[in-house]
From TrEMBL:
This is Short-chain dehydrogenase/reductase. Keywords: Oxidoreductase. InterPro entries: NAD(P)-bd_dom_sf, SDR_fam, SDR_oxidoreductase. The keyword Oxidoreductase applies. Pfam families: adh_short (PF00106). It comes from Methylobacterium gnaphalii. GO terms for molecular function: oxidoreductase activity. The keyword Oxidoreductase applies. Belongs to the short-chain dehydrogenases/reductases (SDR) family.
């Protein structure tokens, strides 16, 4: 079903958060599939080449930075055929333990950052009469995540945003797709922010959630798995609204869809050692 598009066709991809983890693996997969790839990082030097990936400085929480990065890519390539919104961050802790300031910062990257980048490239894609936007969501956009409520909420937000936007822009030849991985060995879990106002009443639950993540990482998929899924979604003539990525994500999506709610909830609480 999926077909990749070679550089002979002049296809240009822009991948946010491409300096490491899923973003880097995705950029490499697209490069190998024949795209000219621009990857963003907050610390990048415009024009630096990282193993064939052309790096661009961009902070997705800044309107000015997003506009500057998009313009730089357009100056270099003249078009943007594919945007992969990958940049993101996480918080691990009970919902009550994070202040509004911390939650706002999370949304500023995970949700508003996606909106900023998308708004920046849509005029380009409309003018071209074609384009594809791929948003990196999470299987946690489908299932609950105790002690990860705010992160899960940002991914639930991307579910609604992506599918709604897809209906709005199809008339311009643009499609919007969501990728839903589960746990990925990308180092993301090690960089998750801690709650800024921890409460002793949640210590045991928070510790159990951290152990659940640690156990899951032992059998997690590698970032290249997501890169392969992105290439598939990018090249599909008729893309699905969403793609799970990896065996765990696919299994969880099926359980969420077909298992009785009470059974799913009981299994989740057991896995996370919740009373």
């Amino acid at each position: 079903m999926a077909t990749t598009i070679g550089r002979a066709h002049g296809k240009v991809a822009l991948v946010t958060g491409a300096s490491s983890g899923i973003g880097e693996a995705t950029a490499r997969a697209l490069l190998n599939a024949g795209y000219r790839v621009f990857g963003t990082s907050r610390k990048a030097t415009d024009g630096a080449i990282l193993d064939g990936i052309e790096m661009v400085r961009c902070d997705v929480t800044s309107d000015a930075s997003v506009a500057s990065a998009t313009q730089w890519v357009m100056t270099q390539s003249g078009r943007i055929d594919l945007l992969v919104n990958n940049a993101g961050m996480g918080i691990q802790g009970a919902a009550e333990e994070s202040s509004i300031a911390v939650v706002h910062a999370l949304y500023d990257t995970n949700v508003y950052g996606v909106v900023r980048m998308t708004n920046a490239v849509l005029p380009v894609m409309r003018k071209q009469g074609s384009g594809r936007i791929i948003n990196l969501g999470s299987i946690l956009g489908l299932i609950p995540s105790p002690f990860g409520a705010h992160y899960a909420a940002t991914k639930h937000a991307l579910e609604g945003y992506s599918e709604s936007l897809d209906h709005e822009v199809r008339v311009f030849g643009i499609r919007v797709v969501l990728i839903e991985p589960a746990m990925i060995k990308s180092g993301f879990e090690q960089s998750m922010a801690a709650p800024d106002r921890p409460l002793s009443v949640y210590e045991n639950g928070r510790a159990n959630a951290a152990q659940w993540v640690s156990d899951g990482m032992k059998v997690a998929d590698v970032p290249a798995t997501v890169g392969k899924t992105v290439v598939q979604a990018a090249g599909a003539a008729r893309p699905h609204a969403r793609y799970t990525s990896g065996k765990t994500a696919g299994r969880l999506a099926l359980l969420r869809r077909f298992a009785p709610a009470s059974v799913f909830e009981k299994g989740l609480r057991k896995d996370m050692r919740l009373p």
